[in-house]
Design brief:
This protein is an alpha+beta fold and 268 residues long. 17% of the residues lie in helices and 28% in strands. The strands form 4 sheets. Strands 1, 2, 3, 4, 6, 14, 16, 17 and 18 form a 9-stranded mixed beta sheet that branches. The chain has a 4-stranded antiparallel beta sheet with strand order 5-15-7-13. A 3-stranded antiparallel beta sheet has the order 9-8-12. The chain binds 2-oxoglutaric acid and fe (ii) ion (FE2). The site of fe (ii) ion has 5 residues, from loops.
Length: 268
Amino acid sequence: MIFVTPTTTPRTIATSAVTLIPGYFTGLVAPTPLRSDIEVDACPTATRTLLQFSDDIGRAVGYDREQGGRLIQDIFPVRSTEHQQVSSSSKVVLGSHTESAFHPHKPRYVVLLCLRGDDLAATTYSDVRDVVRHLSTDDLAALQTQDFITSVDPSFMSNGEPDAQVRVRPLTSTGSGWSLVYDELLMRGTTPRTQAALNALHHAVKVATQHVVLATGDILVIDNHRAVHGRTSFTPRYDGTDRWLKRALVVQSLADVDAVGRVIQTRL
Ligand SMILES: O=C(O)CCC(=O)C(=O)O
Ligand SMILES: [Fe+2]
């Protein structure tokens, strides 16, 4: 991870798997919302700041099946999802994942703006360059085949939408290094050989995991091709002082993306 100052350029972000910009947002922060079904934005200045930042490094997008296509999403603990593998969980570890690993139009960047931190809730991440160091030549070869399946993120099925089984290739060697597609909990190998390679990948991701505890005003940019991420567990209080992030998903360009306006369509 690299640390950069708030005057950082998009070019700096493009070269790093994970970038932390401490204290980027300096505005006032309202109490953390208690309910996710309320439409009022409790911190519109932060929403504007994050949207502007995201559009400087690419294009912020929504997804048709996730939070109604919202461009800037609020992430705070919700009682009914405490134990689920979604970003509003708290009491479970959120397993390492590529954001929307199943999706043909995955975001290039996940941008988190922290409005209120929690000392116990660390964002975890693994840089693909560290991951591949822990894999054998045979496992690297198996992980570059299409003999893997992942399924739809629970956050894309919150209104009863159907699941699907999607073929994915975990590792791709690109001109600028490795690219990784991974989900600790949703993926499986379709043959004994590739399942063994996936088990080795689970171990490699774990060994390469690093932690960052976000604080008020921090922006964290995760390159969704070059790093996977997750979160430790923590205990919510539901009293307006809980952890609160705003999140943007960013593509490099909307050209060749199946989208209506900025809302990416999910056709599997
Ligand atoms: O809460 C976090 O730090 C990360 C949650 C997450 O996986 C996400 O927002 O995509
Ligand atoms: Fe995520």
